[in-house]
Structure formats: structure tokens, C-alpha cells
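Onboarding guide, step 5: your first structure request.
Type a short instruction followed by the sequence, for example:

Predict the 3D structure of this protein.
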Amino acid sequence: LPCPSARATAPCSSATLSLMSREIQSSAEAEALRSRGVHHESSDLEGAEIAIKDLPALPEPHRCEQLSESMLGITVVSLLIALFVGLTQGVAVGAPPYGAEWLALVCIYLEAAVAIGALCGLLCGDPGVVRRSPETCYPVPPEVLARLQRGESLIGLSNITDQQLGRTYCVRCLVWRPDGGSMGSRFPGSSMCHHCATCQRCVTDFDHHCGVFGRCIAGSGWRGNMKYFKCIISMAGCAMLTCIAPLIVRIIREPTTPHSSSRTVG
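The system replies with C-alpha cells like these:
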């Protein structure tokens, strides 16, 4: 006959092992549930927003208007360069070598090269467009998010201002843009941001849309394309002075030349 103590011990050991296995299983399930719960919460947070790639496309710029304005700017700059270089070249042709006229000729070509470089920078450079990114797109305002999730248009919806953070949500570009250099702003150092009706983009440090070059003129310091715009204007002024200077020298020199030559002949 088996020993009673042995019979009592065996069931006790098996119950203990079963209880331990159930505890281990329940703890593992609880851990799994906790991990799934955390993941589910984070998924809900991510799902509450729309992915940047799923946002509606940006509005199309008025490209025909931009192209015609750009061609006008290129034509104006080219004509001014041809005019100033041609006048300076014509004055320097009959002048003695290494004189003021030839120095002006070197200067006018340098100014023309700088103007062409600035024109390329103005036409091809970024004026300061507020681009879509996690920082500028999120959080999407609830009214905008509700419309997007229902597939409704945002036409008629006004821009949304967050005075606490000093920013405005553009309902056309679907980005948060700086309201200015206000306290607490996420965009420190910004002065003004505007949605250009021609370029159909929000631009920081906006000054104006140039109808001659077909670009938004914006920026401060080295930011944006304002430096190129100012450079073109400055080169036009410098070229005018460079063109006038040898003419004045030529006019001053002309009256003395005939007298000296006549005395030499006599």
C-alpha cells in the first residue's frame, strides 16, 4: 500500500505546480495585454492625425502668370545690362588704355555678372516657403481634422489662430505658420507670414509678390530671396553710375584735346 504521506504530497505538489503555471500564464497575459494596450494607445494617438502623405494636395500656383512675370523680369534685366555695357563699351573704345574708361568697363562687366547671378538666385531660390513637416502640420485642428476624415472640402473654412503659441493654421496649405515673433512662438525670429495668392504658398518674412520677376520677395538677412532682389536693384544703380562716370570724364577731356592738337599742328 502506498504511504499516506506520499499520497498527500503528490497531489499537493501537482496543485502547486498547476497554480504556479497559472500564475505565470496570467502574468504573461497581463504583460501582453499591457504591451498591447500601450501600443494601442500610441496607435490611437497616431491615428488621430492624418499622415502628411495623405493630406490633400497643395493648391496649384498660377504658373502662366508666374512665367509671364518671370520672362518680363529676365527681359528687363537683359535690356539694362545690354544698355549699360554697350554705353560703357562705346566710351571706352576710343579712350587711352588703362584710363578711367577701361576701369569703368571692367566694373560694368563685373556688375553685369553679379546681376545675372542674383537673377538666377531670385528665380530659382526658395523665398521661405513653409513646407509640410511634422512640426508644421501637427496637431491638425479638430475642425479641419473632422472635415478631412469625412472627406469634406475645406472651402469656406477660415484660418485658425493659436494666440498662445503665436501661430496660424493655413487651411489652404494645411500648415502652421508663424504669426510673427511673438512670445512663445514656435517660429522665433519670424516677422510676418502670408499666403501668396499667385504662388499659392505660405511664405515667411513676406514682403510682396513681385509682378516683374514672378516670385514672392521675402526674407531677412541671409534667409529667403530678399538679398537677391536688393542685389539686382543695387547693381542697376551701380551700373548707372559706372556708365555715367566715363561719359563725364570724356566730356571734361574733350575740350582740351582739339586745342592741344591745333597747337601741335601750327
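Each response can be followed by summary notes, for example: Residues 162 and 168 are 6 Å apart (CA to CA).
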